[in-house]
Design goal:
The chain is an alpha+beta fold. It contains twelve helices and nine strands. A hairpin with a 3-residue loop joins strand 3 and strand 4. Helix 5 crosses helix 9. The longest helix has 25 residues. 40% of the residues are buried.
């Protein structure tokens, strides 16, 4: 089974237990602080500080809490990088060159769309963007992200932003599209839009914050009769290395937050981010006030939160 393993301090384990409160299992295994099941991932935290993430979404869920330790991952029995990672990671010189980067937001949130941004950063802009606070959006709060996004725009950094609204997301999901395929096509479209905007300038390379192996990414493209562009590189935690990916992550998050604000206004109630019990309760209120069919417009309806929401309806 695909899995990720983290080693975390004890106080972090209890924060996690509180975060997964609505999804806790009744009988955790011996030696475990808690066990939970959420969005295609089983999470088990042990008293030793070891946290095991198993299932299709293990990497996505583990990334919320830290970086997986490859030596403890069953899929990686040695510290040597896999051929895909070593072959398709960008050369280190690219990070200090003019290049593009892309990242997404909203994939783990029940409410709201998926947004993907692609940004092009010139070599002479790198230091200025770092000074402006551009870094991984996961380490920033939403008000900070909004402020930094304005600075990125003021510096005239070329970017594209693609939004997959919930109605289309749900249609694709029912057609059998995985989130991986959706993200592939969104990143592909975002980069093409950026290239059109920049024409005739061409980036020295494009770094994708890796969510799938290159072979899987290309398979998704072929299924839609699309081909991978030139000089494309895949890297996990790319926002920690590439300022272009970091800028894209901030733009994507800003786009997601703004869409959430619009949806909350339309719904007549604040739609929480994430997939917690608060989200279940908000979904229940939405069903009660607008009917179950309204979820198509606001939510990723295949998430477990939909079923949980009905339990809150009296």
């Amino acid at each position: 089974m695909s899995q990720s393993v983290l080693k975390l301090p004890t106080n972090q384990l209890y924060k996690m237990q509180s975060y997964y409160k609505a999804s806790l299992k009744g009988n955790p295994p011996p030696g475990a602080v808690f066990a939970a099941k959420v969005n295609g991932c089983s999470v088990t935290a042990y008293k030793s500080g070891k946290v095991l993430f198993q299932g299709p979404n293990h990497e996505q869920e583990a990334s919320k809490w830290g970086t997986s330790n490859p030596s403890e991952n069953k899929k990686k029995k040695t510290s040597k990088p896999s051929p895909t990672e070593s072959t398709h990671a960008p050369p280190s010189s690219l990070y200090t060159s003019s290049h593009a980067g892309s990242d997404e937001a909203g994939t783990g949130d029940y409410f709201g769309p998926i947004t993907v941004a692609c940004a092009y950063v010139r070599e002479d802009q790198i230091a200025k963007l770092k000074a402006a606070g551009v870094r991984d959006s996961k380490s920033l709060k939403d008000p900070q992200i909004e402020q930094i996004a304005r600075k990125i725009v003021q510096m005239e950094v070329p970017y594209s932003l693609v939004t997959l609204h919930n109605e289309k997301y749900n249609q694709w999901q029912r057609k059998g599209w995985s989130q991986g395929k959706m993200k592939t096509m969104l990143h592909h479209h975002a980069y093409n839009k950026l290239l059109q905007k920049m024409n005739p300038t061409q980036p020295e390379g494009w770094v994708i914050d890796q969510f799938a192996e290159r072979s899987i990414y290309e398979k998704h493209l072929r299924s839609e009769k699309a081909t991978l562009q030139d000089n494309v590189y895949f890297l996990k935690k790319a926002e920690s290395y590439s300022i272009a990916v970091a800028a894209a992550s901030i733009i994507a998050r800003t786009g997601f937050v703004r869409q959430m604000d619009k949806l909350s206004e339309q719904a007549g109630l604040t739609l929480p981010k994430g997939a917690s019990q608060k989200v279940d309760q908000a979904a229940a209120k939405l069903i009660e006030t607008k009917g179950s069919e309204a979820l198509e417009q606001y939510a990723k309806v295949h998430f477990a939160n939909t079923e949980k929401a009905y339990k809150w309806i009296k």
